[in-house]
Design a protein that fits this description.
Blueprint lengths: L1 E5 L6 H12 L2 E4 H11 L2 H12 L5 H11 L9 E4 L5 H13 L6 E6 L2 H15 L6 H15 L1 H9 L2 E5 L4 H13 L5 H5 L12
Helix pairs in contact: 1-9, 2-3, 4-5
Bound molecules: adenosine monophosphate.
Adenosine monophosphate (AMP) binds next to α2 and α3.
């Protein structure tokens, strides 16, 4: 399964990415996690990324695109991937589409996690306390939401046009949201549905 997860910070993409990757036996590729690991290890990529992560700005497209194109060529992505946090700009989405189409394996779905801003603040404040992420301060959260609105939200139209968009109500407990996603993926119309194989499961039979 080749999926991308779109949505504002705090919408629950990361939690669902892990569950979906397990369900579809695909690789979970979270660009934010990769950058945080690179920063922690002090690699050249980490040194470039650090200031962007701290401010809540996006790492430049050319850096992210090169990193993701390399990552999805690795053997664990041969059976598909769940991209969590990529693409975040139209240029990134176009680069991904070009790459996947040239390989004859187009994207199967772009899941857009819909959630209200007030609920996001509540979740992100909780995450800040629990995980001590340096980019979960109130000011940075506000900035990251603006960046999402300006740079990433246009991808909703982009994927709507290509027919890959699936809107997900992201409010609810984790298992409920997973069930919704699997159900909607199972209901996709061709050509997507044909590629899903036995992807969808009936309500109530999702992974636990
Ligand atoms: P995340 O954990 O997905 O919220 O990402 C944390 C930070 O990593 C973001 O605020 C950006 O600075 C950077 N980042 C992650 N993914 C991308 C991307 N696709 N494009 C640009 N920057 C990214």
């Amino acid at each position: 399964m080749r999926l991308v997860l779109l949505g504002p910070p705090g919408a629950g993409k990361c939690t669902q990415a892990v569950r979906l990757a397990e369900h579809f036996q695909s690789a979970d590729v979270a660009t934010g996690d990769i950058f945080r690991e690179q920063v922690a290890s002090g690699t050249p990529l980490g040194r470039i990324a650090q200031e962007y992560l701290d401010s809540g700005d996006l790492v430049p497209d050319e850096v992210v695109i090169a990193m993701v194109m390399e990552r999805i060529s690795e053997p664990d992505c041969a059976n598909g991937f769940v991209l969590d946090g990529f693409p975040r700009t139209v240029a990134q989405a176009e680069a991904l589409d070009r790459r996947l189409e040239s390989a004859g394996n187009p994207l199967e779905a772009a899941l857009f996690f819909e959630i209200e801003e007030l609920e996001l603040f509540r979740r992100l404040a909780g995450r800040s306390a629990a995980l001590h992420r340096s980019d979960d301060t109130e000011q940075t959260i506000r900035h990251r939401l603006e960046v999402f609105a300006n740079k990433t939200r246009p991808l909703v139209n982009y994927y709507e046009r290509s027919g890959a968009l699936v809107r997900i109500d992201a409010v609810g407990d984790v298992e409920e949201v997973t069930r919704r996603i699997l159900k909607l993926l199972g209901q996709m119309t061709p050509p997507q549905a044909a590629k899903l194989g036995q992807g969808g499961v009936p309500e109530g039979q999702g992974p636990t």
